[in-house]
Amino acid sequence: MPTVALHHETVRLKTPLVTAFGDVRERDLLLFELTGADGVTGRGECAPLTAYDGVPLEVAVEALAVYASILQGFDDDTPGMRMLDACRDAADIPVALAAVDLALWDRAGRRAGRSVASLITDDALDAVPVNATIGAHDRAGAATAAAAARDAGYGCIKLKVGVGDDAGRVAAVRAAAGPEMLLRLDANGAWDVEQAVATIDALSPAGLELVEEPVHGVEGLRAVRERVAVRIAMDETAEDIGALIAGGADAVCLKISRCGGISGLLAQAALVQQGGAEVYLASTFDGPLGIAAAVHVAAALRVQAACGLATLEHLDLDVPPELAVRAGSIRVPTGGGLLGEL
């Protein structure tokens, strides 16, 4: 009979991140540990961000308590998907289900002495390209951050927009980063269709890789996409599975927490690819286990676009060396489970 432990940690951001959906100053990380009768422990993580995913911390904690009681009724030989489905039937809270899913994958990898990426496919990438993220700095601050990203070897910068002085900050980032840097904008649904079209047209001379979630909703995204030359990516709207194949975007940003873990993200990635759109991954400023899970999945899917996974450096915690960003990429942890611990 498995045993379950839950630990709560609040981690502050070194500098608040200002976005169109609100300021992010700290992150609540719920560590979920599942230990089998064989003594092997799998670890998962729940990182609710209420302003983004609408799930309050107390709701996530309550769901994890329900899951713990359910999981303790199974044995070590129960298939992981059966255990996950039982938890989902009791409380369908994706950000909380992600903790269970990650723990099951981590435990499976540790038992097999293999990385999670290698459990998914035999042809995973060795490293995943990642982007630097710049929040709502003023022009000088944005330029400084862009120059630092350039010097650190990043090939792509994501700049939060829809928060004021977009034109000035985009120009400052482009000037500091240089002409070769890919520049991605993320509006977090700040605009309506007309605002999005006008703003994207005005900013496009800076050379944009894509604009992520300029508006919310698949119809709005489709309307913007039809009227601008820049590629449009879907993020928050991707919560609606039907929207994934509705032709509303050129690319879709998927996140471990919103997909309910690795298993859910793999399923949604298949839908995205079925619709002909590109897949890339990002975090909601998750902790180390959430980032590790996303790195394994991105590697298994052989994602070529830069992923928004270089976010641990924004948190006031020690970054595991396995997840350090080097020359704009994160190497896939080897060994057993999510972080290569045998």
Give an overview in words.
The protein is α/β, with parallel strands linked by helices. It has two domains: 3-113, Enolase-like, domain 1 (2-Layer Sandwich), CATH 3.30.390; 119-331, Alpha-Beta Barrel (TIM Barrel). It has 13 helices and 13 strands. The chain has helices spanning 50-53, 57-71, 80-90, 94-112, 116-120, 139-151, 166-177, 193-203, 218-227, 241-244, 256-259, 262-274, 288-300; strands at residues 3-19, 22-35, 41-46, 127-129, 132-134, 156-160, 182-186, 210-212, 232-234, 251-254, 278-281, 325-326, 329-331. The strands form three sheets. It has a seven-stranded parallel β-sheet with strand order 5-6-7-8-9-10-11. The chain has a three-stranded antiparallel β-sheet with strand order 1-2-3. Strand 9 (232-234), helix 10 (241-244) and strand 10 form a beta-alpha-beta unit. Helix 3 (80-90) packs antiparallel against helix 4, helix 6 packs parallel to helix 7 (166-177) and helix 8 runs parallel beside helix 9. It starts with a strand and ends in an 11-residue tail after the last strand.
> Helix/strand/pairing class, anyone?
alpha/beta
Please summarize the sheet with the most strands: 7 strands, parallel
Helix content: 25-40%
In total, the number of strands is: 13
CATH topology of the largest domain: TIM Barrel
Shape: globular
By CATH, the architecture of the largest domain is named Alpha-Beta Barrel
The DSSP helix count reads: 13
